[in-house]
Design goal:
Blueprint lengths: L2 H8 L4 E5 L2 H8 L7 E5 L2 E6 L4 H7 L4 E4 L3 H11 L3 E5 L5 H6 L4 E3 L2 H7 L3 H22 L1
Parallel strand pairs: 1-5, 3-4, 5-6
Antiparallel strand pairs: 1-2, 2-3
């Protein structure tokens, strides 16, 4: 099961999360750009970003559709509403102005962060490799 599927399972029925924290966006779909909103709901996962990132998003994003737009946050919210979902926003990563512009969505905290706590096999392998590199570097430094 991929990360977006894990998030979809953790969401309440009939809700869609707008992921605006770029660290969380990268964790979920691989996008490393500086502008984008990922919307995740049952049956929906799409990254909204602008035309500067068209090529980058196409090569980096996995497990989500890429949609190029001028207003990522508003269009992600519109996509959520189009499927009849209640819009959720990351409370710790959404400004008051953004919150108001979205029509007072429901604020939630820690949904993606709770997933990030549990490491998958690829993350464990990367940590193991990093530890090996650090150990070798320390050994060479001590010598």
């Amino acid at each position: 099961m991929n990360r977006i599927e894990r998030l979809q399972q953790s969401l309440e029925t009939g809700t869609a999360l707008l992921v605006t924290d770029l660290v969380n966006v990268r964790y979920l779909c691989g996008f490393t750009g500086s502008y984008g909103t990922l919307v995740v709901a049952a049956g929906l996962s799409a990254l909204f970003t602008d035309s500067r990132y068209r090529i980058q998003a196409a090569s980096e994003v996995h497990d989500a559709e890429v949609r190029v737009t001028a207003n990522a946050l508003a269009d992600a919210a519109a996509a959520a509403r189009a499927i009849g979902a209640t819009v959720l926003v990351e409370a710790d990563h959404t400004s008051i102005a953004q919150h108001r512009a979205l029509g007072e969505p429901r604020a939630v905290s820690g949904l993606v962060e709770a997933l990030r706590i549990v490491k998958d096999a690829a993350e464990i392998e990367a940590i193991s490799v990093a530890c090996g590199i650090a150990t070798a570097a320390l050994a060479r430094t001590m010598a």
